[in-house]
Amino acid sequence: MSHAVSFLFPWLLVVWLLQVLARRPGNWRWLLGFGLVALVLVLLPVRGIPLGRWVAGLNYQPSIPFLGCLAALVWKNSFQTEIFRPEDKWAGWIFGGIVGTVLYPLALGLGNFDPYAWGWTFSALFPVAAVITIVLIWKGNRFGILLFLSVVAYDLHLLESNNFWDYLVDPIYWLLSFWMLANAALKKLRRGKIVAAVNA
Length: 200
Known about the structure:
2% strand, globular, mainly alpha
């Protein structure tokens, strides 16, 4: 199952790229056409390996939240409707920014503790993730659904990793979240300076 799921990210990525290049108004016919073209491309054998599996060879595994965000982007381009509201997106960026910042610098050797080990066996990571998921769903935040799907995917071993961290966050999702948060902070700082200059 994890082998089949590994084709989902390259398939979504190719569909999104085709949508961007086509610059066409979205509808289900275009989505079906792009989906079929993307399927052919990701299954195309290159040196005996399907093109979609070359992503796995790069040792990159997209997390469930990042897959959900990419799927939502494809949906928006196809049907011109948003799955996630602004507050849902911000919950995702905050989660990705914080979780990635906690995980990756320490996992890369910054300090004497590697939190990645928490993902192998039951640890504080699991109840913390459960509480965040429950609170978000209780508040009606749709990002909580992606976290719930992360838990389900982990229980079903849908990704090729057995570490729970990899279901919650990945390097690209973390960097994108960090950039979105930093960009928002800079805009807020600039607006504050403009207001202060006007009031001066």
